[in-house]
């Protein structure tokens, strides 16, 4: 009886081949269903200390694209409550801090310009002491240099240069130093998403990227505050028509 059953199913028989193909097809369907539900063949770890820190930065800055999502209902509820509290608070702090920096930079520029004008008028007047003239001239040059640098870097064309430099800093820090190829280095933010392989990124790199995102938000807030205060007439009209920004002048105390 055993000889008849073993003779009926052999490695070369159609029944054995059909059984193997059916089993392989079932495994393929189960694997595809598991991947569709979020399973990965080589699963990493999202929710360690560094991953939680990066998730808090993502939620606080409202950059939820590609961020890991808690799997439990309590985790998602806590994340939603945290976002409701953190996002408005973070935006409020960024707007006020950037506005404070812009106003203080302008006050510093006005102070330096007044000192330069006063020193220029003093140079025109006859001075009996030549030593005073020799010591005041280098200080005037220093104040003029500081005023020029502040005006260009914090108010003028230095902001686009700072944005480009900050992006290149991220390319070097998160791409070139980590020996990534050119495309992965240029598109380094995609690696810090769930689809890009965030679970395999080192913990220290996650923390540094979270700080990098926070610095980018500070730079963006300062740029918007500068546009609101020193925007051209075209930008002002566009903002007023579409209510993009509050372009009213700040009242300096």
From TrEMBL:
Q: Which residue ranges run through the membrane?
A: 46-67, 79-105, 153-177, 207-225
The question of whether Plastid is a record keyword is answered with no
The reply to whether Ribonucleoprotein figures as a keyword in the UniProt entry is no
User: Whose protein is this, by species?
Assistant: Pieris brassicae
Q: In what residue span(s) does the Potassium channel domain sit?
A: 44-99
Q: Which protein, by its recorded name, is this?
A: Potassium channel domain-containing protein
Q: Which UniProt keywords apply?
A: Membrane, Transmembrane, Transmembrane helix
